[in-house]
Amino acid sequence: MSISTKGINQKLESVLKRNLANDEYQNIRCYERCIVDKAVRLVLLTPKHLVITDNPPKNILYCYSLVDCVSVLLLQTIPEFLKDGESIPCQHIEVELLSDSSTSFVLKKSGSQSSFLGSSDDSSPNSSLSKSQTTSGLSVKHGNLKGALSKSLDEASARSIQKIQLPSVQRETTKVSLFPLTDSSFFYTLLNSTVLNCQIHYTLTSGFTPQSTKPRKHKHSATEVQLYQQLSTEFQGQTSLESLFLLTKELYTATRTRPHVKAFFWKDEGLVNKILRRLKSYLQTTSKDNNRADELELSIELLSCLTVMMRESEHLPQRVQILSCNRNENFKLLVECCTTYPVIPDRLAGSIEVDSLVGEVFDNMGSLLFEIFLLTTKHPRFEAQLTPVLLCQLLESKLQSSKKVIGSIVERTLSEITRSVSPKLTVKIFQTFFILEAVSRNSGTIWEFITDRFTEDIRYYCSSPESRITRYCPLQKITIEKIKCVLSELSRTSPYRTKP
Q1: What is the dihedral of CA 78, 36, 186, 338, to 10 degrees?
Q2: Sheet of 113-117, strands arranged across
Q3: For residue 2, how far is the Cα from the chain centroid?
Q4: For 82, 103, 144, 495, which has the most beta carbons within 10 A of its beta carbon?
């Protein structure tokens, strides 16, 4: 089973501190003992990289960029060398990566020198990369290893962003086989989800200059915990819209800059429940004492905050505990927040400002609903109590509202497809079609509504999905696959009609 870094032995912790940049080290998702190259290794997962060390840990052997991951498969086959002698219960995970990736490199030691290489020698016993990879040519003294690795990761990430925009060329891939030493490991599901989140991030940032590469120290100091507790207490006791907006914005900003704040949040059942109840209240009712536009702006901020808390938090077991406690009370509230159609007073009907805010509400509902579907579909064992069937049952329990919200999400996505292609729109298309595919498999009632209302529009606008997606971005392939899956399901369940 994948284990939090809190339980990592001191040797491994020392190696990671010495070799990884602070932002990578502070955000390690988990580690797993695996057989790699017929030897037991330690495999670690960070938000951007798959890292392999020797065992016992002394050096980092391989570091692969997740943005260059083509596929992650859980295979049923076990190699012959594991069948000999005593049977070892294990899984077989096959990771396919671009073999010419400048962010995939091998760390080798030679005397007192260390090098980052894009390919390894034929004589190296640890080689798992194809011979087509090229040397990156970065050499550092052992004493400066940490800074050099940090620089290498950041420069490689920058080059990866630039490569996304280059003309398409046929690029070779290489496959890395990992064999976790237990058949009940969650490493496969965590790796799958982390790859997806990494590729979403790089798609959104592919058109921009990378941020400063200077590593930031993230320490869980007593002062930081105290500040979080103070913010939580203030939020739960506040009633002023302006104060709630500022506190929510502060929590959102803190989480974006310090991802470990999510660990505080998912241990704070009182704050989670309070945010969900207030969000639901502001969506479905309006007070005469408040400006409706202000209530919608706060709702948007609360939705954004919940989305960032859900994103990349699959490694936190407290998230499941908080959402499933008291007979899934918070999970039910979370789903209701994504399917409560915002109430608009008659006097504000047709207001440009309010209509624009309602559109933002639907966009943020779509992002949060995607995270909820991702939680239930990507982790069937890890999130055993929170399944796609339960999610769709909750959607169907508020059927009319769910139809209106999901219909609005799909309608807004399709209307934007006709405009210029952008990385942000690519992510939105992927999230929308991810939701549609999940609905088609788990909710016949809502899928019937989708087919009746949107079959012709989806076929018309998405018949050539390649032209609707940002080219050369990490999400291109999987987004096209999702669109084709939905088109295939529409063809199976709805007769073909050409849009006039």
Answers
A1: -110
A2: 69-75, 92-98, 173-180, 30-36, 39-45, 49-53, 60-65, 105-110, 113-117, 138-141
A3: 18
A4: 103
Cβ contacts of residue 296 below 8 Å, gap of 6+? Answer: 282, 342, 354, 357, 358, 360, 361
Q: Angle, to 10 degrees, between the axis of helix 399-417 and the axis of helix 423-442?
A: 140
Of the candidates 483, 486, 326, 320, which has an alpha carbon nearest to the alpha carbon of residue 387? 320
**Cα distances (angstroms) measured from residue 150 to each of 23, 215, 241, 312:** 9, 8, 42, 22
Q: What residue type is 97 in one-letter code? A: L
The reported pTM is 0.78
pLDDT tens, residue by residue, 270-317:
999 999 999 999 999 888 878 899 999 999 999 999 999 999 888 788
By C-alpha distance, which of 34, 56, 55, 58 is closest to 45?
A: 34
Token code pair at residue 450: 């989708």
Model confidence pLDDT, tens digit, residues 41-86: 999 998 889 999 888 888 888 889 998 898 899 888 877 777 665 5
Tell me the C-alpha distance between 258 and 278, whole Å. 25
Strands 49-53 vs 60-65: parallel, antiparallel or unpaired: antiparallel
**Whole-angstrom distance, CA of residue 7 vs CA of residue 440:** 41
DSSP type of residue 3: B
Q: Which residue has the tokens 């058949």?
A: 183
Rounded to whole angstroms, how far apart are CA atoms 433 and 425?
A: 12
How far is the C-alpha of 403 from the C-alpha of 145, rounded, in Å?
55
Sequence-distant (6+) residues with CB within 8 A of 118 are 100, 101, 102, 104, 105, 106, 129, 133, 134, 135, 136
Contact 204, 198 (CB under 8 A): no
d(CA 471, CA 167): 9
Round to whole Å and give the CA distance between 447 and 371.
19
